[in-house]
């Protein structure tokens, strides 16, 4: 065995030993219907509800009848959010909850109406992730604390990908 071959064999053995002791990367995925349930998101304002159904089905006689997801800040992707914590990737997917139609469904590209209950914040819902494409404006709640419930326009119904303070 030549010196060069011996050196390569020793290097290979060292790399193999390190790889054998290194643990694999881990991934965890959770489903949430409120972005405040994501540990790295700080929620302090806002209150935007996206419903699976149109407004005439979503809320009837003052009762919520449709599944919904709630957001308290800007959401660049309604599919969810991910973050590495050390060597582990943690992902939170946004789903509709609360019972009724759409319960458990992923909320990206599945919303039909919006309820803005924020006392001070207007919102926009966008067609694309990252706040791009066609959007619709939703005014903050009224002077008597009434939330504004509005159907998404046809270009955004079941085509909602992000939401942002307006």
Describe this structure in words.
This protein has 166 residues and is α+β, with helices and mostly antiparallel strands. The protein has a single domain (26-165), classed as Gamma-B Crystallin, domain 1 (Sandwich). Helix content is 14%, strand content 34%. The protein has helices at 3-21, 55-58; strands spanning 26-32, 48-51, 59-60, 63-64, 68-71, 80-85, 88-94, 113-116, 123-128, 132-138, 148-151, 162-165. The strands form 4 sheets. It has a 4-stranded antiparallel sheet, with no helix packed on it. A 3-stranded mixed sheet has the order 1-7-6, with no helix packed on it. Strand 3 and strand 4 form a beta hairpin.
Layout of helices and strands:
Elements: H1 3-21, E1 26-32, E2 48-51, H2 55-58, E3 59-60, E4 63-64, E5 68-71, E6 80-85, E7 88-94, E8 113-116, E9 123-128, E10 132-138, E11 148-151, E12 162-165
Parallel strand pairs: 1-7
Antiparallel strand pairs: 2-5, 2-8, 3-4, 6-7, 8-11, 9-10, 9-12
The helix content is 10-25%
List the total number of helices.
Answer: 2
Main-sheet strand order equals 5-2-8-11
Q: How many runs of DSSP E, i.e. beta strands? A: 12
What labels describe this entry?
166 residues; alpha+beta; Gamma-B Crystallin, domain 1; four-stranded antiparallel sheet; three-stranded mixed sheet; 2 helices; 12 strands; 14% helix; 34% strand
């Amino acid at each position: 065995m030549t010196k060069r071959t011996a050196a390569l064999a020793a290097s290979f053995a060292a790399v193999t030993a390190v790889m054998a002791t290194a643990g694999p990367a881990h991934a965890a995925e959770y489903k949430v219907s409120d972005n405040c349930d994501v540990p790295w998101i700080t929620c302090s304002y806002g209150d935007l509800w996206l419903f699976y159904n149109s407004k005439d089905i979503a809320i009837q006689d003052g009762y919520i009848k449709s599944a919904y997801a709630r957001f308290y800040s800007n959401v660049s992707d309604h599919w969810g959010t991910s973050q590495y914590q050390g060597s582990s990737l943690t992902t939170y997917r946004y789903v509709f909850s609360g019972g009724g139609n759409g319960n458990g469904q992923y909320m990206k590209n599945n919303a039909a109406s919006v309820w803005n209950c924020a006392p001070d914040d207007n919102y926009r819902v966008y067609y694309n992730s990252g706040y791009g494409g066609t959007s619709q404006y939703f005014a903050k709640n009224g002077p008597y604390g009434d939330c504004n419930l509005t159907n998404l326009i046809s270009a955004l119904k079941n085509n909602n990908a992000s939401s942002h303070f307006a």
